[in-house]
Specification:
The structure is a homodimer. By secondary structure, chain A is an alpha+beta fold. Chain A has helices at about 25-35, 65-75, and strands at about 45-50, 55-60, 75-80, 85-90, 95-105, 110-115, 130-135, 140. Chain A has 2 helices and 8 strands; from the N terminus they run αββαββββββ. Chains A, B: Its cofactor is Zn(2+); Mg(2+).
């Protein structure tokens, strides 16, 4: 019996123009995870920043497994608090984040990932999730929708 | 009776080269606060990013009062989870963050503040808190100490 076709397009591979990802050794990945100071839910905050432009794209969460996988694969994996499972950014939407650097903050409870963002980071189709602000007396989106959110396969991003 | 002298230097005033801060109206500030989706502790994550350079300086937390005060004063005020009170960044250390823009993310639980950072953001005397990463097999600081942390009056920053 043939497998049913996988209708989701394959996530984009790492662009040739990016530096290749050389995964840190297992010991190094373990040292990185050991330096985390997760909250009572086992999570650290993770900021994604675009290489080159410096745009802050999104803030999400990682557990130890997501951090280790991100370092191993060179693709950013978060932990979805709502779905309570690993969230391989772009696995369904194609909006992959290729990792260039991963930094830890001074108290170990937040990470900064420098990424090459395929397409858009926000499930609304905007480049960055931080696209809302005051327009006069009201909060409104201040940045354009670049991709049809219906084509991003919902929230999984 | 004379007041005892206040030995802490006055925090720096907003540099003349920056655009003046025009506080949003009380209604606009209330609309901004109403758009927040704080966590069960009443907090949202707040990222500070340096104007011009785009450096991600730190991640901390704000409650509704901190957000409203930040918008009113044009100086970034966080909420300290450890001290359980407002944390007017730079009040004791002089390492003030002058606000240029405040954005909200798509689900209202994270903020992005574009700031002019006086001096350094990190209590260790480094420009950014995100200064740690892998150096070979170990996690180490990858950025230099620019200011003596003993002169920053401890953690309050």
């Amino acid at each position: 019996m043939a497998e049913p076709p996988n209708l989701a397009p394959a996530p984009p591979t790492r662009p040739a123009a990016l530096p290749a990802w050389h995964p840190p050794s297992p010991d190094a990945r373990a040292a990185f995870v050991a330096a985390l100071r997760p909250d009572e839910k086992g999570l650290v905050a993770a900021i994604a920043q675009a290489e080159g432009t410096g745009e802050v794209l999104m803030l999400a969460w990682m557990n130890a497994e997501a951090v280790a996988e991100t370092l191993e694969t060179g693709r950013v994996t978060y932990y979805s608090r709502s779905r309570r499972k690993l969230w391989r950014k772009g696995a369904t939407s194609g909006q992959v984040q290729h990792l260039l650097d991963l930094r830890l903050d001074c108290d170990g409870d937040a990470l900064l990932a420098t990424v090459h963002q395929e397409g858009v980071a926000c499930h609304t189709g905007r480049r960055s999730c931080f696209s809302w602000g005051l327009a006069g007396e009201a909060v409104a989106p201040l940045e354009p929708v670049l991709q049809d959110p219906a084509r991003l396969y919902g929230r999984e991003g």
